[in-house]
């Protein structure tokens, strides 16, 4: 079994779900008392959040690269960044380490492709929805058409994510608001919805949405387990 290197804390609310998913999947695959070999390095999210809002992505890239390099030095066989948004600086990681970096958008694209969908909605932070580091992979590598919410709904999602979800606040009102946003994208032709913030699957149960949802944290965790057991 290979050792999974995790960079977490963005936020730790979803990082703990990564850890749970990974260990449950390994136990399911191998049986007995098996659990995953993993190393977790967790950042102080307040610092990352401040740099995000000041658009200092170079600084975030340097931080992520240092964490990734440390994982490699301590024996990790791969790097898994437990967040969607901070994949914006994934090049800083891949340029620093020699071990594989498992990109969340690639894992998500593969999962959507297996479902045979062509047009999907994307919910996440404004950084994930507006910038092309995520959608470009889905469009160019997987031939998907990606729909994003309107500006007003993007602002609403941004507020819910940063002022509620990353702080561990998951309300019925926020859930219903997000489901309404997904419904709007469905009316525009979305056949499925990417929950492109790793806290969103905690908020939105898949059975409460009319179209398939893609839990990016779980999909990413599965990719890590597949690699670890390959």
UniProtKB/TrEMBL annotation:
It comes from Flagellimonas pacifica. One of its GO terms (molecular function) is amino-acid racemase activity. Belongs to the aspartate/glutamate racemases family. Keywords: Isomerase. It comes from the Bacteria. This is Aspartate racemase. It holds the Pfam family Asp_Glu_race. Signal peptide: none annotated. SUPFAM superfamilies: Aspartate/glutamate racemase. Gene3D superfamilies: 3.40.50.1860. InterPro entries: Asp/Glu/hydantoin_racemase, Asp/Glu_race, Asp_race.
């Amino acid at each position: 079994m290979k050792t999974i290197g995790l960079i977490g804390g963005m936020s730790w609310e979803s990082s703990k779900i990564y850890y749970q998913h990974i260990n449950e999947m390994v136990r399911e695959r191998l049986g007995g008392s098996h659990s995953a070999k993993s190393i977790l390095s967790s950042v102080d999210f307040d610092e990352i959040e401040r740099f995000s809002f000041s658009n200092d992505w170079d600084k975030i890239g340097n931080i992520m690269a240092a964490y990734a390099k440390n994982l490699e030095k301590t024996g990790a066989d791969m790097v898994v960044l437990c967040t969607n948004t901070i994949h914006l600086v994934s090049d800083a990681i891949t340029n620093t380490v020699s071990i594989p970096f498992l990109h969340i958008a690639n894992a998500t694209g593969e999962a959507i492709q297996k479902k045979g969908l062509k047009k999907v909605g994307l919910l996440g932070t404004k950084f994930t929805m507006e910038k092309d580091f995520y959608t470009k992979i889905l469009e160019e590598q997987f031939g998907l058409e990606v729909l994003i919410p309107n500006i007003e709904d993007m602002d609403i999602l941004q507020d819910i994510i940063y002022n509620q979800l990353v702080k561990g606040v998951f309300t019925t009102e926020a859930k219903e608001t997000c489901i309404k946003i997904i419904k709007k994208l469905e009316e525009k032709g979305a056949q499925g919805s990417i929950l492109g913030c790793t806290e969103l699957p905690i908020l939105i149960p898949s059975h409460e949405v009319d179209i398939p949802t893609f839990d990016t944290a779980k999909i990413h965790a599965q990719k890590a387990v597949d690699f670890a057991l390959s």
